[in-house]
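--- STAGE predict ---
source: upstream dedup step, 1 unique chain passed
mode: sequence only
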Amino acid sequence: MSLTDPLLEDASGSFPDQSWSEIKHENREVSVSSSASTAEPSPQDTAQFDPEDRGLEPKLANADALLIHSIDDKEVQAGNAPMPRALLSPLGSPQTTPGPWMEDGNLMTGAEATFTVVNFTMNVGLLTLPCLFAQHGWSTGVVMAFAGVACACTALFMQESLVALIRRGIPLPDYPDLAREAVGSRFAVLAHVVALVEIFGYVSANLIALANGLVATVPALSEPQAMLVSTSICVGFAAISDKQFAYCALISSSAMAAIFATVLLWGTELDTWAEPTTFLKDSSYVPASFAVVIFTAGAHPLLPCVMHSTRSRAEFRSAIRLSWTFFSLFAILSGGLAFYMYGHSLQPLITDNLGRNLELMKMPGGGAMRKTGGLWVLVKLFGSTVPSTRPPVVALGKQIGIRLPAGNGGFSSVLLTAPLLYATAVLSQIISPYIATFESVIGCVITSFNALLFPSLTYLVICQPKDIEHRICARFFLLLGALLPFATMLPRLLECF
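--- STAGE serialize ---
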């Protein structure tokens, strides 16, 4: 059994890919009581189901039975189910009108969810990964492959935990809900803060890079003016729903591919290629390089919003597998080809190699290539900033009582996104001289928590998997997430003594 195979059982012991007819045949139904707890169907309820009559809707006893969207696959017509009373009915009366988030047309397909998650993984951090080949040699490909498998496994763990909470009657669970159910309220606050810090770091780095790119493209703009213009454009993009923005994400991911294509195309202009043969060097810094890859590939704080905006659980699970498989293959192939051409002259930001030879001297005609690469970077950043703001926007909406439509978007999203993005822009201007140090801390500590430790811990506690392979896998990634910050900092500490 592969570690990325679908997890067979969730906390309630039911199988994840049952169709509606199979659930009805087995007399299973999920109910949400006024206390938001899971209840077993009574004999009277099960008597209402006729195994031979597969074309009829089940009768709901006391309006308490509920099949919640995203638990089961697309065969379930979730639009006909009553809305979770815990969401909009604080007094416990059943809500019989389906909410707009239950409409299938407002939710992403599997392909659209894949575009979205791929866009998260193919962020600007991908431009720094080829230099890891220059630091460690060809063995870096193994590190990247392992990081992709780790992120995919823990993302599947997180999905199972989220579904388990939905079965317990928690509608649209997110990071704090996972932490609260697994450990307690204090841990929920910690997990929420850690997730928001990572998202802030990602959005802040994007806004700083956007401002720098606009200044390079339009020299008449000052950096604060460029920051204001780029932030305002991103606020306008917030009106686009997740379903429609998935195609912007596809364009954004294609822009990243175009950046690497530009770098490789420039490599064909070099007189000679480096053709290095180094397989492994500086092994003591491999944990730090692994943390850098996890920082790039880990998008786990954003996954709950994507899951709740996807039509079915099976499509979201497929999106997870495809996204991190694509990330691993792209990172290994693009980084390996660049390493073969440029060798140990690869720069921390691969676009800095544009227009230069292996001795990093400027070459004739390189200016046009650098501008082309810069324009593609702008396209990439404009297409990836807004989706990463969705979790804090949703959290803010919950706090002030603004309910966003299915898949986000619209005027309410713009209204909530504007103060968050403008505040982030102001803070980004302040911390821009220290952004490298800030990202280093996020990569070493925070991302290992979000991408490895947290999903594994919550999966073990909430789902309590029965399969020994899943238990071993989750415990391994839990231990790895706990030890990675120390393994990353140890070589630097030893150098000080």
